[in-house]
Amino acid sequence: MMGTRERGAAMDVRQIEYFVLAAKAGSFSAAAKSAFVTQQTLSASVASLEGEVKTPLFHRRRQGIELTDFGARFLPKCERVLEAVREAEGFALQWHESTRHTATFAYATASLRESGPGFTLATLRGFRASYDDADLRLFELTSDACLKVLERGTVDMALVAGRPDSAVFEFTPLMEGRLLVAVPERHKLATQEAISFSDLAEIDLFPTPDLDVTYRHIVEGFARYGLTPRYAPVPFSLEAAQEFVRSGQGVDFSPAHNAERPHEGIAYRPLASEDDFTLTLGLATKLGVPEKPLVAALKEAIVQAVSA
Q: Coiled-coil ranges per the record (predicted)?
């Protein structure tokens, strides 16, 4: 266990720097000139350091200064401190330069329409175009995965469905999203104005892209009728979901904006009022992580697009 030291002003880098300069120059006046300070300032700093270590560092003679035995042994340690400080400063500068114009953004699968009013993929492309020296990296993941990579620090910000843990994430709600039921165009369900979970009792469902939000709502909806959803054992992708429905294999719960443009062989119907639900979509960042200027600008651009 480390021992305790008496309370007082801890030695600082400036004191160490002046001590090393003086040791190499062999005089306080020469060291002061190289540091662009007065001799009184430098010698006072060295004296203060000697007070900290409670041992003289120099023999002070008319001809100049000479390291004491302690000072000679102390010098290489101080030189290593200064080298470590320079290395840390260089790393910080390099890191700042590499991240100053970089932002990583993840968004939940199928949560954004291609273009149109509000926040869309076109918003992200426009932002990237307006910052030609910026590197905006985009990742399309499930909502669950967005939060995982955000918590690990892999991305700076994410658009997620549902309100994440407030002890871990800061969340800015943007909009409410609804799901429609995508059914084969010639299926009898396509003739209904709205679809209940009970209507889907014997029909295969395309798997949801996340387990925490959408899946939970659907399972709870079926449970109200004493039912369990029948998910088909197929891998997820937007193209696979559309082909699953189009080919008559089953139905899919799809974001409402997918119905804004026609998809051959697919009809979109709302959930019945008693089963309908919305998902809050918003921007999540990890608490305690300093916000990069580019990330702050991206967040502002997204919020403005939503409110426009």
A: none
